Structures are given as structure tokens and as C-alpha cells.
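Blinded run. Sample ID left blank on purpose so nobody reads anything into the name before looking at the predicted structure. Input follows.
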Amino acid sequence: MKSIMEHKISSNLLTVTVSELGAELRSIKDADDTEYLWQGDSAYWSDRAPNIFPYVARLTEGSYFLDGRLYKMQPHGFASRELFKVVSKTENELTLELSDNLKTYKQYPRRFSFKIKYLLDDATLKITFSVTNLDDKTMYYGLGGHPGFNVPMTADTEFDDYCLEFEEKCAPKRVGFTPSCYLNGDKTDFSLENGKRIKLSHDIFSDDAIVLTDVSHKVKLTSDRGGKSVTVTFPKMNYLGIWHRPNTDAPYVCVEPWSSLPSTQDEISTFETQEDLMTLKAGKTEEYPWEITVDF
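Blinded prediction complete.
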């Protein structure tokens, strides 16, 4: 079996490692060798930062309709399980690409290019998702990021010392989910401390992920006790997922910018009519930039 290649890029402040499998981030380290990215542990969550495409989260019965036919797809799409090819690489920049193939076409009947560019600029990792429709039919899709970050980040802090702080005051709505993690049709007010903060504790994830809309598009994972922090910026994503494995003491938090939502409970989605999916005409390209910034 061919070994899966990993690639490193670096700036004067950070070193980042990316795998060709799923174009997944594998490591974000500073000059002090502090690791900010969750390194995977099957007791909690074995992934690190999967890329989501062409659907976010779960499909009812693992199925959807497109062009009048029924198709099957796993949660969060297939990109994280596909090998990407390296398009270009320099000291501080790496671009990888997934193109449609026989395996993807059986799940998603469109010809496409899905590129992910990682660019290190000092302490900021600039990520660009680029989708090109190579088909003669319109594409309907969702995408997003799913990076996990180590919490605590320093030896002198604990999980409960941390919070998520939005750059601007906002009045988010929490998207309602059923116990089996499908939409229930509700959106409820979600209270923030001082209009900006979510204090972290393990029990806030007892009902699985917290998915918010109507939020500021810049959020910092930080502690009042100082030290290191991570900021995620997502200007073109309308939803933010916050998660760690429910009912555990997992020492990480995922901060997930999403473009769209999963299926409604007991309703098999039709991609042409699911209101929050992205649409892309034949021959067109759309880019979705987002950033991870480390503060130390």
C-alpha cells in the first residue's frame, strides 16, 4: 500500500503539516514547539481537522435526491477520505486538489475540482477552499472546516479556564437538532456573556454540537489567565459549529465554520431545493477563504 505523504510549510512564526489524505491539517506548531492542533485519540476523536465537502454533517438515511435520482453519501461528504494531489508548493504555501473520479461520481454525480490552499503569513494560516464546476449541470454543495484545537494550550491552565469570544457583540441563534443529530426545524436564542463570550465546560456538549447562526465571523479560543490563543475567521460561512465528544472530558474543542446545515429529521433532502446549499453554475469557480491565527 502506498504511504500517504505529508507536507510541511513554515513562516517565521509557525510550522504547519498537511496530509495528502483529505488535505487535512495534521499539525500547527509555534517556534516553542507548542502544538495547537488536536492530535487525535480514539478514546475521544481520532481525527484532527477534516475538510468537509460536498455536504455538511448528516443526510437522513444517508441519502439525498439529485437529478431525480437517489444517491448515498457518508456524513460530512467524501473529501476527508480521498487522496488529494499537490498542485503547487513553496516554503510557506501549499495547494492540493481533489478532482471527481469514479468513486466520487457514484456518490455525487458532478464533475468538479475542489482545491484547498494553505498559506502561512507570520502567525496566520490562510485557508482557501476553491470549488470549480467542470460539469454541464449546476452544482449543489456544502463545505466547511472541522479543526480541533488543544484545550488547555498551556500547562498552567485548565479546560474550564477557556472561552470562545466573538470579535463583535452579536445575538446568535442556536440551530435545533434531534438526539440523532438531524435538524428539528427550531432556532432559539443563544445567550452570550457580555454579548460576546461562551464559557467552556465539558457539560455544554452534553447534547452534542452547538451550531450557531447570526454570529460575528471572527471568534477567539482564549483564556483570561493569558498565554496562548487561537482565532478562527470565516467571512463567507454562515454557521459555526462548536464541539467535542459529548459526555467526556475531551481535552480539545472543534471550531467549525460551515456553509450549510444537515438534513431535517426523517426528510430525505433534495439538493436542488435544500435552501442553504451553495449553487454553482457550469464552468464557474467560487472561493471560500478562512483563517486560523495563533497568538502567543
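Unblinding after everyone has recorded impressions. Residues 6-295 form a domain with the Beta-galactosidase; Chain A, domain 5 fold (CATH 2.70.98.10).
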